[in-house]
User: Fold this.
Amino acid sequence: MKLQQVSKTYDMGEVKVEALKPSSLDIYAGEMLVILGPSGSGKSTLLNIMGGMDSPTSGQVIFGDQNITSGGEVALTRYRRNEVGFVFQFYNLIPDLTARENIELAAELVKNPLPIDDILEDVGLDERMDHFPSQMSGGEQQRISIARAVVKNPRLLLCDEPTGALDYETGKLILSLLKKINRGRDCTVVLITHNIAIGAMGDRVARMRSGEIVEIAENPTPVSPETIEW
Amino acid sequence: MGILNKKTWRYIVRNLGQFLAATSVVMGGIVVYIAMSSAYFALGESRDRFYEENNFADYYFQVVRAPENVVKQIEMIDGVGRVTSRIQRDVPILKDNEERATARIVSYNLPLGDVINRFTLQQGRTFEVNQASGPTEVVLDPKYFTANQLAWGDQISVIVDGKEARFTVVGEAISPEFIYAMKDSADILPDPLKFGIFMVEHSQVQQLLAMPGEINQVLIEFAPDADQSRVIDSIKDTLEPFGLLADYPRADQLSHAVLNTELAGLRSVTTVLPLIFLGIAAAIQFVILRRLIKAQRAQIGLMKGLGYHNYLIMLHYISYALAISLAGAVLGIILGVVLSGQMIELYAAYFNLPTGLQGFNQRAIINGLAMCLAIGFIAGLSASRRVVQINPAAAMRPEPPKIGGKSLLEHLPPLWKRLDAGWKMTLRNISRNRSRFVVTLLGVIFSVSLLLISLFTFDAVDYMMDEYFYEGQSYDIAIRFDSLLLERELLNISRLDGVQKVESFMEVPVRIHYGGHTEDEVLLAYGPDLTMKRLETDTGQPIQVPEAGIVLNDRTARKLGIVSGAEVEVETLLHTGPVHRDKVAIVGLTRQLVGAGSYVDLQQANRLLGERNLVSGALLRVESGKMDQVEGELNKMLGINSVLSSQKEIDNFNRNLESMNVSLGIMVLFAALLGFAIVYNSSVMNLAERQREIGSMRVIGYSVGEVSAMLFKENVVHAVMGVALGLPSGLYMAQAYVQSVSTDMYSLPVVIYPRTYVMAAIGTVLFIAAAHLFSVRGIKSMDLVSVLKSPD
Assistant:
């Protein structure tokens, strides 16, 4: 995936807020890219643009050989549906659906979803699949949210502060899960966080500040999440 | 999309109260629609079929007496289809309890061919002619038969020309002209105890009434494409030598006219009421969905993020509105069908219609379902259009608080400053949710109006009773004679023990000619010293009958295009004696709540007839406690055609009102249900939206009661404005309703007592308070921590 001079300006009536200054970034198939930055640095905006959740004010996003910025709403929806999985800080599960049904919500959208039972087993929640989100802990909810993102078998998994709302132990569990998916399913993972320690598990680390990518560093020796401490 | 349907279903179950509230409004509309339109349909259908099968006449001619062979002449007239001639005359019945009643004898030829206005036997058998002497066989209308508890073979005595004649009851039959068996348009309601249709073989009627080879009524059916007015004129010319008393089209036939009024009333209720209900239902659905979409903004963002197309998400929300519509429609149809059975039974009991009067209107069910789904879809579509605008990335962030607009009152600082914090919050909340407030207010206004309209009918009837029975007339008994009598013969009556006062009157059927137009009318002639009956002008002012001239009924005046001061030609139409024509000046107009007629002085009426001191009836005031005795004496007297006691009329009236109570009770119920549902719904939404606010207040230390009171303030605004606007709108709707069902024969006065306004207002406050209490039950069990912690 290539982001070419992508920028985003929000029009807030009288003021214009430049959330993302023109930035370029290549993402390689199968890598784990960690984007670090304090809040307000534009990392969520960048992630949303990558995932087709938001359109850039200028610049282009090329995925494979298609330009996803030029296709309009229908093309964006198709892109999100077939290529992208999202994991959010606050899980965003539908409260009226059980764990399994939340996953089915995504599975229904694609022709060849992964078997739900396998996914639930992967995230270690096969026993809890008939529970509603309100009956689950944050970590459990986040695991369901990951399962929901993965079930579509996306080529790109985008994670927005996936451990932001979780305690230390659970956070590490989630990171391990993401690593497992990245390596085991050959799925490109982009993870944004303000937690610098997490950068150590990425193949590459991009740093953002004030709406700009200020540094992209290769990490030849990514560590296992279990060894990270913060 | 199985999962999304599951999501809808779970949401419904979790917010069942709100769902049921919205559903019940839809249901209300459909119940009314199905029940009323089924009744309308069944009644209309049954009437049309009955008319068709029994050849209901197109036109009627009444003569004093004419030879039977005049029919041959009429049949020759171009444009005449079928002709039937017969004898019809009212005679007094001598009942075992000595009460007077009237038999309308109608003659039929045997064998009963395919004649006009033929009857359909319901029970027993038809009459036969074989008895040389002994009682004549008679077939009665079912209402008289039932009301008088008769059995086959029972004997009934009538008085014909001062002599007693006897009938044997052999059967029970209905006819298209007696679906509503009322004696004449002066009666308010049918009284089957006092009036019955006697169907008798023709030659026997001729013998009985001493009219050998004669008839007094001609009924015709027009040929297709006939020039009707030319045909009528030709027949009138033919019948003129035989004393043409009256001629009228089907539209003026009494039973037909009453039935039509009833159908018109049903029709206007059938169209207007459900439309208002469904309109409000659509508005509620719209408001609920809009709130739902706002509350589930993040979920919508998520669905978009997962790759759901806009139309799928919109369909998901529309499906909620459709679920409300469908549930409301199904419940409404079931209840409507049940209720329509009851309604139809009520009508069947009211009218002499064939027993086939049943079933529900299939088309109404299909229409009802289609209407419900259409409003659900339209409301759903217009509310869920917002889904398209939601940007998935922005939707995942908590929504920024709305720019706090000032409410209307804030522009009036002196007033605003005086309000406490609770009122300020309430008013700001209203101004933030204007469309919801307006929808709820409209619902309250409509239910207040509906309450008022339902209650208004009681007032109008009560007022009518009061005006007619208590204010308008102070006599205890009204008697009518078989024929005109000299006034001095009333001495016999005034000498009866218990009779305190006697005032005579005369009723003369006439035809009024003016400017080339003609209308049939009844002259009501009273003496100058009349005290037992109040006469009023068209504006309700009491008047004395002037010595000369005529106080014309305003409906007749309108039909003839007469203005006060004009001169009309009056033609008398008595069954006996010559016809007189004379010019009389119009000296005023009168309007009666019940019945019709124009007033003249008794001597003036005599002058018109070329007679002196004749009367046709008398009003009696009777000493209290001697009513039965006087009635008994009167019933024994010959020459008296009818004895009407005021009290018995009132009783009959009240009996007829019982059926009205049922349908009005149902209306009141629906009005309250609607009000409850809409206020409940708005309160629940309010509660859901302000969870954090309420949570904060509870944490600060407000009690459940105080929070509930704060939320109630919004409903106080609903109640105050709803009552203030709903009462006048109810009055307006009552007027519109009365306008739509008014006929020549009667119109309901639009009278609403102050008490009724108060009752409607209290009713409104009650259902609003009930809805509020129901909706705030959740405050007590609210989990403060989670409410305050939740990100959205």
Q: What stands out?
A: Chain A touches chain B through 30 residues (CB under 8 Å). The CA atoms of residues 110 and 152 of chain A lie 6 Å apart. The mean pLDDT of chain A is 90.
